[in-house]
Amino acid sequence: MVLDAINEVELFVNVFVSVYVLAILAYILTSWVQLPYSLRPVQRFLYDVCEPYLRFWRRMLPFSFGPIDFSPIIAVAALILVERIVIAILETQH
User: Fold this and answer.
1) Tally of structural domains, the chain
2) What is the rounded average pLDDT of the residues 32-42?
3) Which residues constitute the domain of residue 9?
4) DSSP class of 2
5) What's this model's pTM, rounded to 2 decimal places?
6) For residues 43 and 29, is the Cβ–Cβ distance under 8 A?
């Protein structure tokens, strides 16, 4: 029974990180183009979901590269790192 719970938590963490990485990617792509009016709510949703997390990493970066924003790269790398750490911890509980 405990193994099922651990496996479910591992699956949840994996799916959550995957979906959030895809949301960040979609947010980046939609910020580069002007979307039609009918898709503006999607763009606003992506902004509301991704921008607070990316803003955190923008404040953490000690330097700026002008118009190039590296915070999504750092944010995705941090998500994947945390995912691997959590799954490694859960694997020790088997």
Assistant:
1) 1
2) 89
3) 2-92
4) H
5) 0.87
6) no
